[in-house]
Amino acid sequence: MKKTLFISLCLFSALYGCGPKDNTVSYNEETGLTVCHYSNVKDTVDIKLSDLVENFRIVRFDNSPEAIFTYRTLPTITDHYIGIGITASQPYMLFNSDGKFLCTAGKIGQGPGEYPMSIYDAAIDEQEQRIYLGSFGFLNKIMVYDLKGNFLEDRQIDYELNKPKFELGEDKSLSIIHLPIQRSEESPLVSQYVFITIEQPKLIRNIRV
To answer: Whole-angstrom Cα distance, residue 113 to residue 52?
Structure first.
């Protein structure tokens, strides 16, 4: 399935135009990195949208007062839902696939079902009727809500998450990648959990750097 990361589209276009003929690319033997010198890129390349995605549609979001938002991260999109991570002053918001506002999940705070910082990423499991939320930083838990926004539980993990990104697998595993900032002990770059029950999640594997 074709997918597009919109934040990288312009960079992709620039890199596509790089070539050795005009010295826009160099290789650093010390670091092992290939560098594209963006300021030297002169050519442009036309890319068809159909080369990147199979289909798309424009969604007009609800404009009722409770549905107004300013987002800071990419939305979480499933077949029937769109989840929006908001700035530090607003909770996570859930819309249906037509843009109708449904509910918020949790709120900013320190109590049960609340998070002290904005939500950085989420995973929506339609089959199990669950929303998994990861706060911006320094929490060693994943917060779980139902699709009506009701808080269900905190699922503790073994280290603090910092700018986490989630990927929900078909086998019910939740892969987590984050910035492994060293605060108290070594934390992995990538972890994969499987949520078999509402009990403590089972760790499948860690990848450390």
So the answer is: 38
Closest CA to 100 of 125, 131, 63, 132: 63
Cα angle 29, 30, 36 (rounded to 5 degrees) comes to 60
Quick: pLDDT tens for 45-60.
Answer: 677 777 778 888 889 9
The per-residue pLDDT for 56 is: 81
pTM, rounded to two decimals: 0.68
Q: With contact defined as beta carbons under 8 Å apart, do 80 and 126 qualify?
A: yes
Query: What's 50-110 look like in SS3?
Result: HHCCCCCCCCCCCCCHHHCCCECCCCEECCCEEEECECCCCCEEEEECCCCEEEEECEECC
Least confident of 4-13, 143-152, 191-200: 4-13
- Confirm if 141 and 177 have CB atoms less than 8 A apart: no
H/E element, 12? helix 9-16
Residue with tokens 């839902």: 81
CA angle 110, 116, 122 (to 5 degrees): 115
